[in-house]
Design a protein that fits this description.
Bound molecules: zinc ion
Order of helices and strands: EEEEHEHEHEHHEHH
Number of helices: 7
CATH architecture: Alpha-Beta Barrel
Strand content: 15-25%
Radius of gyration: 16 Å
Distance between the termini: 22 Å
Oligomer: single chain
Mean pLDDT: 93
Number of domains: 1
Structural class: alpha/beta
Largest sheet: 8 strands, mixed
Low-confidence stretches: none
């Protein structure tokens, strides 16, 4: 059983679950991406949240500095929805980890947040874990192996997810790569991540 906690199918951000017979289940997520905050001129468009598995992808991206103020406003609105609909969030974060932590503290959010495409230091990861967040790894496993090994050595497996995002990779390859780099047994890794997903799902 493989959980791909964050990928895109037909322009839709989704969670994809593939079982051992290669049957798949696609769960939609809905949210305003930090690159798309300009669509929210005066108000945030209505989202169809009743049927979604999670709110995502949402978050903060400092490469897009010109909209950063607006990104914060929209992100806070997404948090409000996440808390009131009791849905976990899939969070995109580029160079804004400290802001994400500050906002989680400030809003006293209690729903689980998965920081997808994590690509930072072990120290940053520890800060995120301290505030009850989950970490999802994808391209870092291929592009920055040394850093990925350090992260895998230090992360409690209960807080780990894996993803393909826009890479086009097979999720099974991503699990094999993470198992090879971490030393965890492949089946153990699959089982643990599926349990982590079960914990996310029962929040709502
Ligand atoms: Zn994505």
């Amino acid at each position: 059983m493989f959980v791909d906690i964050h990928t895109h199918i037909d322009n839709q951000s989704v969670i994809r679950i593939v079982d051992n017979n290669f049957e798949e289940k696609i769960l939609k997520t809905e949210g305003i991406h930090p690159w798309e905050v300009s669509v929210c001129d005066n108000e945030v468009p209505r989202l169809r949240l009743e049927m979604t598995a999670a709110i995502g992808e949402v978050g903060l991206d400092k490469v897009h500095k010109e909209t950063f103020g607006k990104q914060i406003k929209v992100f806070e609105e997404m948090i409000r929805l996440s808390e009131s609909y009791r849905k976990p969030m899939i969070v995109h974060c580029v160079r804004a980890y400290s802001e994400i932590i500050e906002i989680r503290k400030k809003t006293r959010a209690t729903m689980p947040w998965v920081i997808h495409g994590f690509n930072s230091s072990v120290e940053t990861m520890r800060q995120l874990l301290k505030h009850d967040m989950y970490i999802s790894l994808g391209e870092i496993l291929y592009r920055n192996e040394n850093q990925a090994v350090e992260i895998l050595k230090n992360i409690p497996i209960e807080r780990l997810f894996l993803e393909t995002d826009v890479s086009g990779r097979d999720i099974k390859d991503v699990y094999e790569k993470a198992a090879a780099l971490s030393g965890w047994d492949f089946d153990f890794l699959c089982k643990k991540i599926f349990e982590n997903y079960g914990r996310l799902e029962t929040t709502h």
